[in-house]
């Protein structure tokens, strides 16, 4: 399909000559996450909803609904849309977090599913560097941030407390 592909660069000074494309984008490239997010956004724009009901961050998709059944329905729409374009949702990495903020659930026995597979429930998620707990508490996040702070302090003390390093 891409054998013998050629392209050119368009700039304000004019277009370059055509040249062969022999190497694609490397997986470790800094451009890869942006390109992936751009493609996912383009192929799913018609099923995306307003924040916070649907959020795309790097290669993660966050879908929110008020019921487990609603989450299952959203997952199915996303699965169908992505699979129709040659992508697939990872069934091993997909998890869900149920937050109970004083509201009684009326969905006893309802499971979150992706296709026919039951999605495992988590009690805590790490999202954009913060821990989100299903209980609504923040102790895990605070504990984590304190630990990170101490770790950074230990890294810095080697230089800050070194008498060989001048202060000025």
From TrEMBL:
Pfam families: RVT_1. Residues 1-132 form the Reverse transcriptase domain. PROSITE patterns: RT_POL (PS50878). Coiled coil: none annotated. This is Reverse transcriptase domain-containing protein. The gene is LOC107774674.
């Amino acid at each position: 399909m891409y054998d013998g592909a050629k392209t050119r660069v368009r700039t304000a000074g004019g277009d370059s000559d055509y040249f062969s494309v022999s190497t694609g984008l490397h997986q470790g490239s800094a451009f890869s996450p942006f390109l992936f997010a751009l493609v996912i956004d383009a192929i799913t724009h018609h099923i995306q909803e307003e924040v916070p009901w649907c959020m795309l961050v790097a290669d993660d998709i966050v879908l929110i609904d008020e019921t487990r059944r609603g989450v299952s329905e959203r997952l199915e729409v996303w699965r169908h849309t992505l699979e129709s374009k040659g992508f697939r949702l990872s069934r091993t990495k997909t998890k869900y977090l149920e937050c109970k903020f004083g509201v009684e659930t009326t969905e006893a026995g309802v499971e979150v599913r992706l296709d026919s597979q039951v999605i495992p429930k988590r009690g805590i998620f790490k999202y954009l560097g913060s821990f989100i707990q299903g209980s609504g508490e923040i102790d895990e996040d605070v504990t984590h941030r304190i630990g990170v702070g101490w770790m950074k302090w230990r890294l810095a003390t080697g230089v800050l407390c070194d008498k060989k390093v001048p202060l000025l």
